[in-house]
Amino acid sequence: MLIALLPGDGIGPEVIAETVRVLDRVTDKLVFETAPVGGAAYKAEGHPLPPATLDLAKRARAILFGAVGDPDCDRLERHLRPEQAILGLRKELGLFANLRPATLFKELADASALRPEVAGAIDMVIIRELNGDVYFGEKGMRKTASGRREGYDIMSYNEDEVARIARVGFETARARRGKLCSVDKANVLETSQLWRDVVIEVSAEFPDIELSHMYVDNAAMQLVRNPGQFDVIVTGNLFGDILSDQASMCAGSIGMLPSASLDANQKGLYEPIHGSAPDIAGQGKANPLATILSAAMMLRYSLGLAAEADRIEAAVGAALEKGARTPDLGGTLTTVQMGDAVLAAL
Ligand code: IPM
Ligand code: MG
Which residue's alpha carbon is nearest to atom 6 within ligand 1? Predict the structure, then answer.
């Protein structure tokens, strides 16, 4: 099975390298092909998502993605910036459903920014819509009537986009504790009013699921106050971006959380939710566990290798239990040593 490896920028190549070592240990069914993406691709080929990279992503059964983002590229025209690579892949491949599980490994209760007894209750999945919202609306710079500069980005969702991600939310809740919380800003935004109306309409198909609604500001507060109340959260692209970073810190470290971005046929792109961390790139300080756990999601959701996925997740837990900690978790292990710790547990 062909896997596209897109390491990208910053710490991306380091965390992908450890993940490939782990994958090679649990299965010999994978064939890897690597292509440049992000700032690295811009520097090598003049575009953050070169045609050959997109082609590889389309041919592959699944995509394992590191991170994109490079301060050298921050002043480029927007369509050439590294971030456009991941946005382009999500759009071109129709990867609309982003699953971001936030679970606290019990060994890490003291690494959370929250009190251990609050953090210990975290066990949720954030389902973030990825193909719409203010991310993909018309945007630009213009002048006001008085000649002042003005930036704008149009937010919109149509009902079909909301209904399909709502269904992913309900189905995910059905496979868990049966609770779905839809997060919006319906008290202010028309986009959110439609979102809420459509989620309620779709809920008729899922009478067994307990549906609630929360404004995004309140959700941000509740995530810190009592994260254990959430089972599945479904939300739009922008709110999901923000809340999933927040949830990661509640769960210990942003270096721990994996994600899956799926199309309608379980083809997926798998990536850690953290970014390229240019400040620590190349120093061996990055935590590879979010990427290793993303690979486990890949085995489970796109490749039908659930037993191998379980083995990887158990090995991560065992390594943590033995005290393996990279600097983000308060330890001193290098990226490679953390990879070694997972391999040892396998
Ligand atoms: C994420 C990232 C991306 C996003 C960036 C790199 C474009 O923050 O995957 O959460 O905003 O979606
Ligand atoms: Mg983000």
Answer: 83
